[in-house]
Amino acid sequence: MEYKTLSNGIKMPVLGYGVYQVTKEEAERCVSDALEVGYRSIDTAQSYFNEEEVGNAIAKSGIARSNIFLTTKVWIEHYGYDSCKASVEESLKKLKTDYIDLMLLHQPFGDAYGAWRALEEFYEKGILKAIGISNFYADRMVEFASFNRIKPMVNQVECHPFNQQIEAKKWNDKYGIQLEAWAPFGEGRGGLFENPVLKEIAAAHGKSTAQVMLRWHLQRGIVVIPKSTHKERMAENLNVFDFTLTAEEMAKITALDTATSSFFSHQDPAMVEWFVKMVEERKKQQNSSKEKKAW
């Protein structure tokens, strides 16, 4: 495995396993499979509702905790200083660990500054080995890096051949923030797996289009966390260190960029409202659950 050294000196594997959209029922098995085929970086989040299953898999794996780079993320409803502190402690319990290698703020909304102060304190105590952000566009990233005591070390964003984050990478690089790609395959939207340019390059190297996309990210210096529920594909995704894309091939993939999200824009007011409603609904569900328990 190759590593990226973050701004604070922590080494982060360049390729990990992500469990977004992996169900609670499948998460423990999937993480166990990922660890078995060789992954040593696992990415989860409070909002994925599978932290406990991830923790179970790691605990049962027999692999030393120090050999696993574990990432999770604070969800919006836990923003603010006090709420964030409580949520980090809850994540530690669910993950069955006394430290987390990387903790991210999942979205650029709400009281992110209050939440960040909590992460800074956990970081200084050594409970969080590195802290960062997710889905912060370049303007918000610059603001956040400039007006906090400790700069984020990682920014996890949508990144794939159809949305390459070229300008964002320049700004993150300038501030010493490691860019990490969620949805490195763009979930196959727009026919990405069948794209003729990627298929031609894949054929030239005897690789799959998925492997070509991962290799392209790595050669750009971007950390990737592909997800699959199939063990053989997990192994395939890990097998990308034995070939190199040429400058011409990299340029052909660069030409695929639309600089547009394949999912949604965090700068769309309607989408911001959607996040607000989601948080409100979750709070209602939590309050209802508490009332039932009290009854």
From TrEMBL:
Single GO MF annotation: oxidoreductase activity, acting on the CH-OH group of donors, NAD or NADP as acceptor
Pfam annotation, one family: Aldo_ket_red
Domain of life according to the entry: Bacteria
Active site residues of this protein: Y48 (proton donor)
Swiss-Prot/TrEMBL site (Lowers pKa of active site Tyr) positions: K73
PANTHER family reported for this sequence: 2,5-DIKETO-D-GLUCONIC ACID REDUCTASE (PTHR43827), NADP-DEPENDENT OXIDOREDUCTASE DOMAIN-CONTAINING PROTEIN (PTHR43827:SF3)
Name by which UniProt lists this protein: Aldo/keto reductase
